[in-house]
Design goal:
Two copies of one chain form a homodimer.
Chain A (H helix, E strand, L loop, with lengths): L2 H9 L6 H10 L3 E4 L4 E3 L8 E6 L2 E6 L5 E7 L4 E2 L12 E4 L3 E6 L1 H10 L1 H27 L2 H19 L6 E3 L4 H8 L3 H13 L3 E4 L2 E4 L2 H8 L17
Antiparallel strand pairs in A: 1-8, 2-7, 3-6, 3-8, 4-5, 4-7, 9-11, 10-11
Chain A binds a DNA duplex through helix 7.
DNA sequence: CGACTTCTTGAGGAGACTCAAGGGTGGTGG
DNA sequence: CCACCACCCTTGAGTCTCCTCAAGAAGTCG
């Protein structure tokens, strides 16, 4: 992954200037490298930080008292990680590296200053947060009101859309560093049922998922099963007019 | 509801100054009144706005292609409504008045200017968004990984906590303007099953829920069933140091 | 090559859903 | 003032999706 991929996310809303990009770079503190499976931070840890994901995939998860867990989100290069924790005294989620990963920590006082110095970036981070809220809302709908096939289809659809956003060259065949157990934790299902659901999708010639290689055989069919609403970002965001 | 209740939410993070409160008041545009059941805005509507809920309860919901819907959140006086839509070209959710309601619209350019003029308020709105993200994450866990009894218990627990925050005088007995059908849409269950679950909770002497009057009989038991994680707001938020 | 994780398959069970219908309550209009 | 309608709550019976438990196969890493 190169710098380009990492800044793509920030350009999503458009309207950023060269000076804004430079300001973002100033946020970058010493890098931290993680091996696959390594944990960036544990749920409950005090004074949680925010990170910028430069390379690799990570996942944010929450453990449940009854022994299971739920995977909140999968992060890709260019994502801001740990923003929700900024409001909290203790980290709300555990962040795990799904692949070898590089992040840079953004310390909280720096972020505070940024809000004063660069309102455009502040507004951008604010809007990214709103986008994430909508994503969570849609996942809530998916998990709360659709069946297993639809949920798995929704996860694949969302991942594909996001991968394409980060790596535009992606085709119908791509790699996802998630186990079926992870997929179960993303959908609120059990591993066993996820396995059977994937087989069902393969039988119906929607997609294949072997090891961690996904191939989408029928885009339209997949979209239909997922039933995700269309979400278009605002083209003229709120800071239009901020000089 | 008085102004006090409405500003309580903003004081949650502490550290706001009189000038900040004044700046917030400046955001208040002409009021809009809604009758019970009236819709503030429909999902899909272009150029969605943000609102400040002054009086009454509202609910935000998303309709699902399969005919059902999911209730994303219940709002009380002092809540900012519709923030997620600021990132989107079209409203992601429908907002309905659960009771007679008064809101004031905050237009987007004003908000943009605010980010420039008052970074403390910007940071505050940013942190409120992070808090909401954590709330959504916890709901995802509740709906994705717990059974009906636990989900209903979680809804009651969260509502009670929030009511207490808004109206500190609240006891174990309070009113919730939600039907069992609404509760079903909050939990991802069916009306029938919600009804049976409530009866089960009454049998077990956890709570009663008749019409729209809830009485919590056993706080500890309810908390245990809900299994919600403890979430403490950061005491020294990121803008500490912003002069 | 052995230990571990991941994937796969089977059988049985249970929590939640569907369909259906009756009763209560509040609002509205004749 | 009563009848009617709409909405909400409640209950029953039957079904199905998804879960649990269990064990074996396949792949992966040291």
């Amino acid at each position: 992954m190169d710098e380009k991929a990492a800044t793509v996310r920030f350009l999503a809303f458009g309207g950023l200037q060269a000076s804004d990009i430079a300001a973002l770079k100033d946020l970058a503190n010493p890098l931290r490298h993680l091996r696959k499976g390594e944990i960036l931070r544990h749920e409950g840890e005090p004074d949680p930080k925010m990170y910028f994901l430069i390379e690799g995939w990570t996942a944010s998860s929450i453990d449940v008292p009854n022994g299971s867990r739920l995977l909140i989100k999968v992060h890709m290069p260019g994502d801001m990680i740990g923003m929700p924790g900024l409001a909290m005294a203790n980290a709300p989620d555990t962040i795990t590296a799904l692949t070898p990963t590089t992040v840079s920590m953004i310390d909280t006082p720096t972020l505070g200053r940024l809000f004063k110095i660069n309102p455009r970036i502040a507004a951008l981070l604010f809007l990214i947060s709103q986008e994430e809220r909508v994503a969570l809302m849609d996942r809530l709908v998916s998990i709360g009101r659709t069946n297993a096939v639809s949920r798995v289809a929704a996860v694949v659809t969302r991942l594909h859309r996001k991968i394409v956003r980060t790596f535009p060259a992606t085709t119908e065949c791509f790699e996802i560093p998630l186990t079926q157990s992870d997929l179960a934790d993303m959908t609120g299902l059990t591993v066993v049922h996820v396995n059977r659901t994937i087989q069902r999708l393969r039988q119906d010639k929607i997609l294949t998922w072997t090891n961690q290689n996904v191939t989408i055989l029928d885009f339209d069919g997949l979209e239909r099963l997922a039933g995700l609403p269309v979400r278009n970002l605002r083209s003229r965001p709120m800071w239009a007019g901020l000089e």
